[in-house]
Every structure is written in structure tokens, then in C-alpha cells.
Design a protein that fits this description.
- With 463 residues, this protein is of the alpha+beta class.
- It contains 13 helices and 19 strands.
- Helix 6 (256-277) packs across helix 8 (293-302).
């Protein structure tokens, strides 16, 4: 029967039984007696499996020429190991060479250390390294844990559209979607005639599923959308991607306080799951990337998040006497360097900042009674900064219309969004969790390009 290395580690009960295992060669050595030892990996876990090959095996001479990276199928007996480095090993009965490496001199993955910058240039091969395979398994478990938490709490998953004609944030750089022939673009006076395009109007890749998700929250009460979103910012920082994933829950009859509680509970739940199910991978990253990371994750679970108003955050930053690159002043945004000071230096734990000035936040956020601030929150974590942004949504049509006008948006484009406030309007709230941001925090990898399989950034689209 076919088995994986992870299934053996997790208690597969077939000692001294014949099994079939498939994988790629990781290491190879020969003893003085001619016994060949190879270790293979199959991606199911971090640990490899040792294979013992005696001279009596039929194709022994061919096997001597095996190279690191070759793929093999092995039929053998699973036995308890007499060595100290592993608990079990496989005594080979038959080995089939499945795939060769045609030019070993040009094989990009070797046994030596590869920088993360180099690995980004070979994104199609980097999953063969321990680093990226560990991140991949953590990423999978993280995604499953989020779905499980929301399912347990009675949320429905909604597939929101990736193609849209409106800007959720009101000021985003968006990728245009078009089928027009670039060599024969139709013009109406000096403007592109989008009536001749596929959808009959200017369309984009979405920057958020939130607005469309709200329509279902105002019917099904508790929903979420989880999928890719797109930002056309020409930014090459370690925090930005052009394509990334976002979890966006929306709750009817809910206030800002409700989503603050939900987000904190969800974050702690998924971190417990990662520590429980992916400890080996975390331990590997802990030793390789950040030796304090596991302790940080444990502290994250047991610390109560700090909650402060935006105004208080500004006062703390002003009192720091640090010469920040970006100015600190009430009414200006809080940038990543300010976030890191608050989380890493001042509070030394996750921080929730609430009630930002309305003019630096999106039009859909509910206006507070002072009409200067909105009922919103950002969750900041050490080393990374913001991972969650959320708010209570404006549920009064007349105020929403005023905010649309203040944001210089075209009112008629938001007709269906305004309808939600016309027909049975309710208080409702939601937030967005940047999937790659939280993954960066969990793994300790500071460049977000290292935690997504195929990073999309300016001038990077080959894979």
C-alpha cells in the first residue's frame, strides 16, 4: 500500500509490513560494506525517511548512480530503526527510478544554503527546499483553521466577485480589466469608449470583497468571503503584493466592539491550531529565522490585546521624541514605523487602535458622534504592523451619501450599495484580515513575498 512519511510518523501501524513510498532523494551515502543509505522526502512533513539498500537488490548498480533530486518509488519493509537519528527506516526490496535530472550542473536547487532572494527567482522550484515546504504546510493549516473557526461560529462562506466596476476603498490603485484591442482602442472624443468593451463600462480587479459581502450579511446575518484581491500600487516594499488573499467577515446587528472581540478570538484560535498541528515546521523556522518566534506565538495567545484610541496613539508617538521619517500629527495616518514603535517598543504586544479621523479612512465607515472620527479599528502585531482593519459600517443613507460626496466618488455607481440602507437598514460591522500578513507574523519571515507561492509584484509576473 502507498503511504506518506507523515502518516508513518503519526502512528502508521505496519511495522515489518511491505509498503510503497514515493519521494525525492535528499541525501545519499555508502558504507564500507557497500550498503547504500538514501533519505527521501515527499513534502508531507519536514522529516525525511531513510532507505537501506543492500547489494542483493536487483538494480543495485543503477541505484549507485542515483543523484540528489531524483524521484523514486520504493517498495520495502517498514522497520524500527537501530540508529539514533530516526525511529523507523525502510529496507528496500525494489526501487524504481521515476524521474532524472537531465543537467545536474544547472540544477538550481543544491544542498548548499540558498538566499530567500535567490529562491524568489525560481519560484517554481523553491517548494523543494525545507524553508518553503514548511511555509506551505503552515499556510495550508492556517487556511483550514480560519474556515473551521468561522464555520463553528455559524458563518456562511460567500464567493464575492473578483471583477468590479467600483472602488471599495475609494482611493485605490486598481488593475483595469478589458478585452479591447490595444492597437485599435475606440475613442469617444478624447476618452476611451468603454461601451464597446466586454462589460460595456470601465471594469477592474477588486481591491476587496467587502461591499458585495455586505449585501449577504444584511440577509444571512453572519458571512465571510475568503479569496484573492488586487492592488496596483507600484510598491516594492517587503509588506506589499499586487495579488494577495484576504479574509473578510461581515456581521449583521453588530457593532465595532463585536468585531474586535471576534477578531481577537479568531486570531488566538488559529495560532493555537498552528502550534498544535505544525509544531515541527514552526520549530524549524524558529531555529532558522527567529529563535524567539515560538515564545512570541505562545505569548500572543495569552496576552490581552491593548486597546487605545487613535488620539492616544498620536500622543504616545509625540512623547517618544523619536525623529520618525513620516510626521506625527492628529489627522495624519499612522505609518508602519509608528506601528512598530507602538507594538515592539511601547506596549510589546498586539495593539488595537480605534476611532481614526474620518478623512483618512474609507467612506463606508460609520461616523462617530463627534463627526470627526469613524468607528473603526486596526489590529497591529509586533514585527509586522497592521494585519486587520475593520469598522462598523455606516447604516444611515443620508450620512453615507454625504461621505460618498466628500470622498469625490460617483454616487450612481453605488446605487445597489445604497439600497441596503433603503430597505431594512441595520447596524452591521466587519473586518479584513490580510492572510499573508498573519502568515508573515507566524513564520517570522519579514518579506511577504516568501509566504505566498507565486508573488505578484511590479515587474514580476513570470511564474
Amino acid at each position: 500500500m502507498n503511504v506518506t512519511i507523515n502518516s508513518i510518523i503519526q502512528g502508521f501501524k505496519k511495522i515489518n509490513k511491505k509498503i510503497i513510498i514515493n519521494g525525492w532523494i535528499k541525501t545519499k551515502r555508502t558504507s564500507k560494506k557497500g550498503i547504500l543509505f538514501i533519505s527521501i522526502y515527499d513534502g508531507s512533513c519536514l522529516k525525511p525517511c531513510q532507505i537501506i539498500i543492500n547489494k542483493q537488490i536487483k538494480n543495485y548498480n543503477d541505484i549507485l548512480n542515483l543523484k540528489i533530486g531524483y524521484s523514486v518509488e520504493i517498495i520495502g519493509l517498514l522497520t524500527l530503526s537501530i540508529g539514533k537519528k530516526q525511529n523507523f527506516e525502510i529496507k528496500a526490496i525494489k526501487i524504481k527510478i521515476v524521474g532524472l535530472i537531465k543537467n545536474l550542473k544547472k540544477y538550481p536547487i543544491t544542498s548548499k544554503y540558498h538566499s530567500k532572494e535567490y529562491l524568489r527567482e525560481i519560484a517554481h522550484l523553491r517548494p523543494r527546499t525545507n524553508l518553503i515546504s514548511a511555509i506551505t504546510r503552515i499556510r495550508h493549516t492556517l487556511m483550514q483553521s480560519i474556515h473551521k473557526y468561522l464555520h463553528k461560529n455559524n458563518f456562511l462562506w460567500i464567493a464575492t466577485p473578483l471583477i468590479t466596476c467600483i472602488d471599495t476603498e475609494g482611493y485605490s490603485n486598481m488593475f483595469k480589466v478589458s478585452t479591447l484591442n490595444f492597437n485599435k482602442i475606440p475613442y469617444n472624443n478624447s476618452n476611451v469608449n468603454y461601451k464597446k468593451d466586454f462589460f460595456g463600462k470601465k471594469t477592474f480587479l477588486t481591491v476587496s470583497g467587502q461591499l458585495t459581502a455586505e449585501t449577504y450579511a444584511c440577509s444571512c446575518s453572519k458571512i465571510y468571503t475568503f479569496g484573492p484581491i488586487f492592488r496596483a500600487e507600484n510598491s516594492n516594499t517587503s509588506r506589499h503584493l499586487s495579488e494577495f488573499w484576504m479574509i473578510e467577515p461581515e456581521i449583521a446587528f453588530a457593532t465595532l466592539k463585536d468585531i474586535i472581540n471576534l477578531s481577537e478570538n479568531m486570531l488566538k484560535y488559529i495560532l493555537k491550531k498552528i502550534l498544535n498541528k505544525r509544531y515541527d515546521d514552526l520549530y524549524f523556522l524558529n531555529n532558522k529565522i527567529n529563535k524567539k518566534k515560538i515564545n512570541h506565538l505562545i505569548n500572543f495567545i495569552y496576552y490581552k490585546f491593548e486597546q487605545i484610541d487613535y488620539s492616544e496613539a498620536i500622543k504616545i508617538l509625540l512623547k517618544s521624541n523619536i525623529n520618525f521619517k513620516f510626521p506625527v500629527k492628529w489627522g495624519l495616518d499612522i505609518f508602519s514605523e509608528h506601528e512598530r514603535y507602538l507594538t515592539d517598543k511601547y506596549f510589546k504586544k498586539p495593539v488595537i487602535i480605534k476611532n481614526y479621523p474620518k478623512y483618512i479612512k474609507s467612506f463606508y465607515m460609520k461616523i462617530n458622534k463627534d463627526y470627526k472620527t469613524v468607528s473603526n479599528m486596526d489590529i497591529l502585531v509586533p514585527e509586522i504592523g497592521e494585519i486587520i482593519g475593520g469598522s462598523q459600517r455606516e447604516d444611515k443613507l443620508n450620512i453615507l451619501d454625504k461621505r460618498i460626496k466628500e470622498s469625490k466618488l460617483i454616487k450612481k455607481k453605488y446605487w445597489w450599495y445604497r439600497d441596503i440602507r433603503k430597505y431594512g437598514s441595520i447596524p452591521h460591522s466587519g473586518f479584513g484580515l490580510g492572510f499573508e500578513r498573519i502568515l508573515s507574523y507566524i513564520t517570522g519571515l519579514k518579506n511577504i513575498r516568501d509566504v505566498i507561492p507565486f508573488p505578484r509584484t511590479p515587474n514580476s509576473i513570470e511564474f
